[in-house]
Amino acid sequence: MKHTLIAAMVGALLASGGAHAEKVKIEFWTMSMKPRFDAYFEDVVKRYEAQNPDVDVVWTDLPWDVIRSKFTAAVAAGQPPALANMNVQWAYDYAVSGAIQPIDALLGKDRGMYTAGALADVTWKGKTYAFPWYNSADIMAVNVTIFKKAGLDPNKPIRNLSEQLKMATQIRQKAGVAGLAPRLGRVESVFLGEGLPVLENGKAVFNSPKHVALLREFATAYKAGALLKDNLFAEDNFQVSIAAYNGGRLGILETTPTALTRVRDDAKDIYAVTLAQPVPPGATGVVKGGWLMDFVVPKGVDAKLLPQVGTFAKFLTNDANQLAFSKATGGTYPSVKQAALDPFFQDVPANAGAVENARAIGARNLENVRTLAILGIDDPAPLLRRLREETEAAVTGRKDPKAAMDAAVTFWNAQLKK
């Protein structure tokens, strides 16, 4: 009897010790981070586990063209990771399908550490579905020599798109070069940046008087020769735009701060007369150029694990770690407020060039930077192609802007019904 009692006590103690020693596992997935950022993520994991010895953090990195299929399969199998790295469009699709869950309760009072624009990017129908992570932002490079030749003040911020188009026209008239290279091949983003909706209640609405009036402004500028015609209606006109700017054929270049290193390295004479300025905000205060990455919490994560998942997600995306990631990448921005105020972004030496000034300007605009993308369309390619075609017809004068947008809207709505 005595031996039986002792054996039972020992067994209970061993069971208790085993339960106490069992760690909580948190697996998080990132997208195309290996091998460049191995040291960064290994350090994040090491520090978190040191602060939380009862947690075992597992980092898995997947290529960007694989992560969606792997994620979908994992959720369907009931074996999802605790967190997964997505962009805004993918997060929206998963939110609509119910594959991820709202995180408002996990954010709690820490919601305030993220920028308003980043939170807005991942908030739909009043619920937030992702922890914001790294971001981007556009700035504007102006050629001081061209501006002065056109009788313009390069130090005066441009207030809005209409003013920018008028200045581009003045550059053409007085300096003899194109003033601006807008991304008219992605005119849907131009509309969104100006606070003009593309879809409402599942229907295309970009033929309103305000949309048409904006296209007429572009058409007027195009007729005056103010717009760089190289790839003007292509999906991506970055390469031709920076080539034109480096060649002294473009007065204003809208791009990311990092892209200005191309000007610095490839066209030193142009870089010497380049001044960085903020991009003009849209009518609702939106700043262009955002491309937010985030972390979502899949459906099927053990409810008991959620508090730990939230704690780790906020650690992964806090000010210190986002700042460290920005330093590691050398070109991304944080989505948290305090990191954007760090001297890494804001301290600009007196003799700094356009690249350093541009980085500070982009950081100061982060509160209002948005990801301007169409959400919730399964196959947007044919819709966007038709919109590009009609936009080109409208801006080049081959078609009245109202008729062009009416035709595009009719096509979109017919396709969206299918």
TrEMBL record:
InterPro entries: Bact_solute-bd_prot1, SBP. Gene3D superfamilies: Periplasmic binding protein-like II (3.40.190.10). Residues 1-21 form the signal peptide. Keywords: Signal. Coiled coil: none annotated. GO terms for cellular component: periplasmic space. It comes from the Bacteria. Its main location: periplasm. It is found in: Periplasm. Belongs to the bacterial solute-binding protein 1 family. PANTHER family: ARABINOSE-BINDING PROTEIN-RELATED, DIACETYLCHITOBIOSE BINDING PROTEIN DASA. This is Extracellular solute-binding protein. It comes from Chitiniphilus eburneus.
